[in-house]
Queue: 2 jobs
Job 1
Amino acid sequence: MLLKRILAVSVAAVLMVGCARHAEVVNVYSGRHYQADERLFREFTEQTGIRVNLVKANSDQLLNRLEMEGERSPADIIITADAGRLIIAKEKGLLQSIDSEKATQLVPSHFRDSENFWLGFTKRARVIIYPKGRINPSELDSYESLTGDQWNGRVLVRSSQNHYNQTLMASVLAAHGEKGAENWARGIVNNMARNPIGNDRDQIKGIAAGEGDVAITNTYYIGLMLNSVNREEREVASQMGVFFPNQNDRGTHVNISGIGITANSPNYKNAVLLTEFLLADQAQNVFASENYEYPVNPNVEWPELLKSWGEFKSDTLPLHNLGEFIHQAMITFNNAGWE
Amino acid sequence: MIKKLKGFSTPIRIRNYFNGWMGISLLVCLAVAFPLMVIFGHLFKTGDSSWQHITTNLLPAYTINTLILMGGVALLVTLIGVSTAWLVSMYKFPGRRVFQWLLVLPIAIPAYILGFTWVGMLDYTSPAYVFLRNNFGVETGQFLFFNILSMPGAIIILSLSFYPYVYLLARTWFMQQSASILEAGYSLGHKPLSVFFRIALPLSRPALVAGVSLALMEVLNDYGLVNYFGVDTFTTGIFSAWFAFGSPVSAIKLSGYLMIFVLILLMAERMDRGNRRYDSVGSQFRPLRQKELNRLNGFLAMITVMLPILLGFVLPVSMLIYWSIQTSHLAFDHRFLSLLKNSFLLASLAALAVISISVLIGFTVRTFPSRMARFMTRFATIGYAIPGAIIAVGLLVPFIWIDNQLARITGSAGGIIITGTWFTLVFAYTVRFMAVGYNSIESVMTKTSVSLDEASRSLGMSNRNTLFKVLIPIIHPGILAGALLVFIDVLKELPLTLILRPFNFDTLAIRAFEFASDERVPEAAPASLVIIFVGLMAVLLLRKTLKKQGYVHHP
C-alpha cells in the first residue's frame, strides 16, 4: 500500500515538473546559494509574472551538466561566483551574447565579456586583512610585498584549490608572466604561517589567534563575521582592518559574481529581463547590504560598512583577458608548492 | 558449496548460468553498473595536457595521503566498533541496554557536518575556547588542544562518523552467535580476552570486513570533509582535475583507477576468505547470556562505550542545538516542511529500490553460485566508493541519450524528459548505495545455512517460495537493517542530489550544506538537527521491529 502511494506521489511530482513548463519561466543554474538571491528571484516573479526555476550546485558541475545536456538543455541562465568559470563556459561554446542596452550601460566594460557573453553583477575584492593596532597598515603595500623577508611565517591564505585564489593567480600571471608569478607564489609559500587550511574565515580567526599577522581574503567575510550570531566572531572581526593592495600600481584584484545566458536558451527574452533585474538598483542594494558584496552598478550607493573600508582602485585589466591565464594558474600553484 | 558443485554434471552448471533468476539479476546489475561502466570506459581515452601534469606532479602525494587516511580510519573504526559491540553483547554493566542503541547514533550525522561542528567547537571563537581563554588564559593557537584541520583530525572525525557500520554489523553477528561456541572456548580454559581474539574475532570476520569496507568506501568517497580539513586525497585529486584544471576527462579517468583499486581490494578479500563458510550448522541455537562485571570493570566498560557516543554524538549535537537556538529565527521558514518531505520521500524510495535489488541478486548468487555471478555483484556494488559527482557524470550519459531517443520518437522539439526528475535521483542513489544494502543482506544470508534452502526445495518448494516463505522471514532483521542504513545514507547524501535534482528542489542536506559552504555554520545547524532527528526515528523504528522479531534479548 505504502509502495503504491509512494509511486503515485513520485509520478505526480514528475508530471508537475513537466506541466510547469507551459507558463512563462526562466530556468537558472546557479553556483551561488544565498538566500538573498532567492528572495530577489521571488520578487522578480511578482513584478513580471515570470516564474524562476532554480537549480543550485557547484558551478563546475553545472557547466558540465549544461555541456552534456547540449541543445536540449532547459537552462536559460548560468550564474557563477567567479569570472574564471564564465570564461571557460564561453570557451566551450555554452553561452551567447546578452543583447541588452541597459546591461551594457550599467556594467563597466572591464567587468564583462568583450562580446557580452557574460557580465558581472557583484564585485568581490580580494584584500589583505590585518589586526588593527598590532600591524600598522603603512607596513603593507601589495600582494607582491607579502613575499618580503619581514613577513616570514606571518602570512595566512587558503589552499590553491579555491577559485578565488586561482583567479587571483591568473591576474598575477597577467601582470608578471609565468616566471614572475611562480616566484611570487614561491615567496608566499615561504612566508606562510602554516599549511593552507580551512576557509577565508579561518584565515581571519588565525590572525586573532596569533598564528599569523596578515590574511588574503575577500572583504565580505568581514561583513558576514561582523553580523555573525556568535559574539566572539563579531569581536574578532571588529579588530580587523581591511587593506586594499596594489594601490600604487595595477590596483586590487577584483573578482565578480557573473551571469551568462546559455547558447540554447529556450526563454531568451525572459533571461534578458532577469539579467536586467539583477543589475537594477533594488537588487544591487540587496547584494550590498545583505551579502556585503560591492555593487557593480556605479549608480548604487554603498552601505555604511562598505564605505567605512574606503574607496579603492581596482585592477582595470578586463576580466575576460584572464582567459589565457586561468588554465595556467593551477599549474603555477603546483610548481610553487602551494598546497 | 563450491566443492559440492564441482561434482555435478555439466547440465547443472549450465543451468547455473542460464535461468530466469540469473537473467533478471544480470539485467538489473547491468542497469545499475552502467554509469560505472561509462566511467570505466574513460580509462582508455587518451589524457589531455592536464592529465600529464596531474599524474606526474600530484598523484603520488594524493595516493600516499589516501592510504594513510584509509589505514588510520580502518584501525580506529575496528577498534571502536568491535570493542563496543563485544562489550554490550557479552557483559552486563550499568546502562548497557541504553548504550547499545546510543552507539549507533553517530551514523545519523553526515561526516562533513560532524567535521564543521567539531571545528566550530574547538576553534578560536568557540564557547569552550573562549571560556578557557578568558578564565584560565589557555592559548593553544587557532584551535583548542590541537590543530583539528589536519590528517589526524580527519582520521578521528571520519572514524567517529563511520564506526557504527562496524559496530552494527559486529553486534548483530555476536548476538546471533550460539552461546555454545563461546562456552566451548571457556570450557577449554580460555580467558575472556583469548576467547575474543581466538574465537569471536575470527568468527565475526565477514561482519567486520563488511563494516570496515563500508567505512573505507565512505572515506574514499568523501570530498567535503577532507577538502575543508586540507588533506589532499585521491578524491581531492579527482575534483582538482575537474574544477581547477577544467578537465572532466582526467577526473573520470582518475575515478576509473579508483574503481580498479576498490575492485582489487574486494577481490583480494574474497579470495582470502575463499570457500570457508561461517554459518552455524548445529541446530541448538542458544542466545548469549551476558556476564556480570564487577564494579571496577563495569565502570571501565561504561567509559569505553560512552566515549564514542559522547564525541560522535552528544557533544556535537549539543553544539548544534545551541547554534539552532541562536539562529532559529532564520531557519524555520515556510519551506522547511517541504525540505523534510522531499528528504523523507527520496530516502524511502531509494531504500526500497536498493533493498529489492539486493535481495534479488543476493538470493540469485546464493542459489546459483558462479564466479560470474559473484563478479557481477561486486561490480554493481562498487559505486559506493566513487564520488557522487562522478557517478552523476556517468549517469547523465545514458539518461541524456534516452531523452534524445524519446524526443526523436515522439518528434517533440522540447527539452529533457527524464533527466532531472525524481526517477534520475532515485536511480543515482541506487547506483551509489547498492553496497550498503547488499552488504548487510549478504551478511545475514551468509549466516543463514544454505541447508535451509535445500530442505525447502527438497520439500518441493519453488525458488520463489523458498525466497519469500523461508528465507525472507528468517533474514527479515538484516533486510530492515540494510534498508535503515540506505535510508539514513540518502538523507545525508549531497553531491548527487545537488547536481541531479529537478528545478526548485531542496532537501535538508542541501539546506545544511549551503549555509556551511558559505561559512555560516551556525545557520546550518537547524537543518542538520532535523536530518539527525529523522535518522533517529529510523533507528527507533528498527529497534521496535527487531524486538518483535526477538532479536533483542532481555535477560
Job 2
Amino acid sequence: MQAGAVRDLERMATDRLKAAGLTWEALTTFAGPRRLTLVVEGLPAATPDREEEVKGPKTSAPEQALDGFLRKTGLTREQLVERDGVLFAVISEKGRATATLIPEMVERIVRDFPWPKSMRWGTGTLRWVRPLKRIVCLFDGAVVPFAVDGIESGDTTEGHRFMGSGRPFAVKDFADYRAKLEREHVLLDATDRRLKILEAARAVCHAEGLELVDDDGLLDEVSGLAEWPTPILGAMDPQFLDLPPEVIRLSMKVHQKYFAVRDPKTGGLAPNFVVVANVEATDGGTALAAGNSRVLSARLNDARFFWDEDRKVGFNVWLEKLKGVTFHAKLGTMAERVDRIAALAREIAPLVGADADQAEQAARLAKVDLASGMVGEFPELQGIMGGYYARLAPTPALRADPPHKGEGDGADLPPLDGEGGREADGWGDAIADAVRDHYKPQGPNDAVPTAPLTVAVALADKLDTLVGFFAIDEKPTGSKDPFALRRAALGVIRLVLENGVRVPLMPQLRRQFAVILTDLYYNRRHALLDAARSLKSLGVPDNWADELVLKLGGATKAVIVEPGSWGILEFMPDRGAAIGEPLLAFFADRLKVLLRDQGQRHDLVDAVFALGDDDLVRIVRRVEALGAFLETEDGENLLAGYKRASNILRAEAKKGDLPDGTPVALDGAPPEETALIAAVSKAGAEVDAALATEDFAAAMTALAALRAPVDAFFTAVMVNSDIPAERDNRLKLLGQVRTVMGRVADFGKVGG
Amino acid sequence: MPDVTTEPLSFQDLILTLHKYWGDQGCAILQPYDIEVGAGTLHPATVLRALGPRPWKAAYVQPSRRPGDGRYGENPNRLQHYYQYQVILKPNPEDLQALYLGSLKAIGIDPALHDIRFVEDDWENPTVGAWGLGWEVWCDGMEVTQFTYFQGVGGIEVDVVSGELTYGLERLAMYVQGVDNVYDLKFTKEGLTYGEVFLENERQQSEANFHGYDVDGLKRRFEDMVAEVSRLLAMTGPQGQALVLPAYDQVLKASHLFNLMDARGAIAVAERQSYIGRIRDLCKACATEWVEQERSRA
C-alpha cells in the first residue's frame, strides 16, 4: 500500500502543479508506517504573468458578434487590437504567489487520495487510510496556513512512538524535518530503512557465525512496517529443523515476517530467525527476542502438527477429498481435473521421452497435496509438499504391478496407497520431482523443469488450464488475467522450447477441449450448456449445444474419453479448430512477447505463424532463420522485391482474375525473364528440400539466390506488357515468386 | 518474558486492572451479556450502540463461544469458550492509540522492552454485516488486540465512528505470565489455575459440540428463533417502538445455533452462505430499526 501511495502522491502532485502553471526542479515522495511526505524543490515564488491573445470577429462582422466577444472577454472595443481586418483581445493574467496556490492543491490531494480502502473517524467526514493527525506544510521556510476538515496545517510533527522525545517539535524546512525525525528515531526514506535492515540483519547473523537468508519481497515488506527498524537475532528450538525447510521459512515469513538464517557450516537452516523490531529495547532486545521465539514455537508447532498428520493420512483420503473441491464452478471438481490431466499426461509422455504409466501416476498425485493440512495452511507450498509426501508415501502397487501394462483397458487405477503392509519407501524420485515441480515455470524468471516426467505433467497441467478457461470463455482481457492464463501459456512455450519438445499443439488443444466438454457434459449438464453458449462467440452455430447434447446423449464416457475416438470432435470436425485457433493465437501473442524480450521482431513471428504451423520449436527456428536472413543485404532487397511483386499482383487482381499456371520461357522474352523463371524453379525445389529437413538456413540461402534475378527482372522487364500472353506469363512468374517465398514465411506480414 | 520487577498479574487481576483503567477513562463497566455469542462485538453494547448519533463509552468482559474451536482441553491454545475484553468509545477519542498503550502499561507490558506494532488490518464480521479499519496490535510478534474504527454495522454506515478494542484475554495473560499452556494460567494470585476452572468444561462442551447436540433439534430451534425475530420486530412497546432489543436477542440465539450446527458438521457447503445470509438479514432488520430509534432519541 505504501508503494502505491508514493506513486499516487507523485502523480497527483505533478498533475496539480502543472495545472497551476508551476514549474519545479525535483519532486520526491516518501511513505512509512505513520507518514506520507512530498518534497518539491525549485518551485518559483510565483507563477509567471501570462499574456494571451484571443482571436475575435472580423471588423466586418455584424454588431452582435462583436458584442458577444466583448462580453466573453470583459473588454471594451477600444481595448481590442486590430490586425489584418480581425479583432484580437489581449488578455493578461497576473502571476500568483505559489504560497497562495498550495493550500488548494494539498487539500485536493488529501480529499481525492485514492487509498484502496479509506475510513472516517470520530465525528468528521474526511476519509483517509487511518485517522489523519497532522499536516505539516512549509514553503520557503514559512508555514502555509490552511485547514482540511478541521486539521490545521503547521510546522509541527512528532517522532517515533516509543523512542522519540514524546513531544511534538517544529521544523524549518525539509532538511530540518528529515534530520530532526532521524534524531527522534524515524527514518523517513524507505530506501534508508531497507538498507539499515539488510546491513544490521546481516551483522547480527555474522556475529554468531551465521548467514541471513536473503528475501527481497520480505525485505520490502518489513521496510514499510517500522519507523526505526531494528533487526534482532532470535533462537528457536533446534528440534524444529526436522521440518522441511520450505515450511520453516514460510511459517516465519507469512505469519511472523521473520527472516530465516542459514548455518554456513551445514548449508542448511540454523535454529535462528531475524525479527525486525520497531524499537531498540532498553535490555538490548532480550525480552523481545524471547517473546518472538515463543510465538514462533507456537507457529512451528502448528506446522509440525500438519506435517505429522499429513504423513499419516495418505493419498487415497486426499484424492477422495478432491472430489469435493471445486476447481471452478464451470470446470468441475479438482478430482475431475486430475482425471483430465492424467489422461493428457499419458499422451504427452511419449512426445517428451517419458513413460506413459509414470506420467499418468505422477499427474494423479500432482494435485493431491491441495487436500493436505499443510497446503491448506500454506497454499504457497502446493507442489512442494506433494513432492515430500510422494517421496515419503507408502509404496504404491505401481512398480510391482503397473496399472497399464498393455493397452489401457479403461479399468480403474489401483489404489494409490500401498496395500498389504509394504514398507514405506515412496513413489520414487522421478514421480516425486514431477509432483513437486509441475507448477513450474511460475514466471519468466523461474527455471524450466527438464526431467521428462516433470515436463509431461507440467505441460498437461497448463494445457488443461488454458483449454478449460478458453472453453468457458474466461480469456484474459486487458490487465485482467484472474486465472493467470498468460503465465500458463508462457509456461507451455518455455517448457516446449527449452526442452526442444516436438509437439504439434493443435491436436493437443482440440483433444483436451473434447475431454473438458465431455467432462462438463457428464458431470454438470448446465455448465456444458453455458460453455457451449459461450462458444457462439467463436462462430459456433446457435443450435450447437442442443445438437451436442443430443449427439452425446447415448454415448458412454469410456467411449468418448478413449484416445482416437473423440465423439465431440467427430461430431464437429471443423469446430475443434474454432476452439483451438483463438488459443493458438493466444500462444502466438505470448511467443511474440517472449521473443520480443529476447530481441526478436514480432512481425517475424506473425509472418511465420501465418503459415499455420503449431510446432513451437519449428516456429522459433524459422523466426530465427528469417531474422538472420532479413538482416543480410540479399534478404532486405528480396523483401523489397517481394513487396513490389505483391503490389503488382494485388493491383492486377482487382482488374480481374490472375492468370493461373506455370510461366514458360516465351520466344523472344528478355533474358532477365527467362533467368528468373529458371531461378524460381530451382529455388522452389531447393526450398522444398530444405523445409523437408527443417533446414531453415538452407531455405533462406535458396531464397537469397532469387535476389539478383528478381532485381534484374524488375529493372529490365515491364510486367504490364501490351501483349496479353507476355503480361500473363509475367504475372504467373511473379505469382510463383510469391508462392515459393510464401512457403518459408508470409513475407507480406514482415514490416518494411 | 514479562517485565518482572513485580509479580505478573493473575488472570482476574488483569481483568480488574483493565476495568479500573477504562473505568477511569469514563467507560461504563458492564457485565457480560447473558446470551451465547461468538465474539464480544456482538454484545448489544457494541454492535447496537455503535449505530446512531449518541455518544457511548463502555467496557466489559464477554465470554465468547466458538463451538468448532473446542479441542477437548488438549490443545494449549484453542478453546471453545474464552474471554474477550471489549472497549467501545464513541466517538473515538483522538488519542485512542495512546490510551490503548496506557492500558498495556497498566497490565505490565513496557513498550521500551517489547516490540509493540500497529499492523494495518481491515476487519469485518459478515454475520452481522459489520466492517471497519484499524490495526492488529502485535506484541513481540503475537496478536494481542484487534483495534477497529467501526465504519458500518448491520450493513448501515455509522453516523459517528466508534473506536473498538478487543483484547484476547487468555493470550494476553499467557504473555504477561510467561505461560505456554492456557490451562497453566494463574487465575488468582493464590494459584488457582485456569485449568481448574475451565478444563472440565472444555472436555464436556467439546464432546457436546462435536457429537452431542441433536441436529434436527438445532435446526428446529434455529427456525423458531428466525420466526421470532420477525414477530417481535412487528410488535410495538409502550412508546410505540418496535421490540428491536428482544428481537436482536433472538438473532444472537439463532447465530449460536448455527455455530453449533456447523460444529456438528450439519451445514453443507452449499447451505452455508444461505444460513449466514439469513442471519445477516435479520441483523440488518434489527440494525435498521435500531438506528431509527436511536436517531429519534438523540
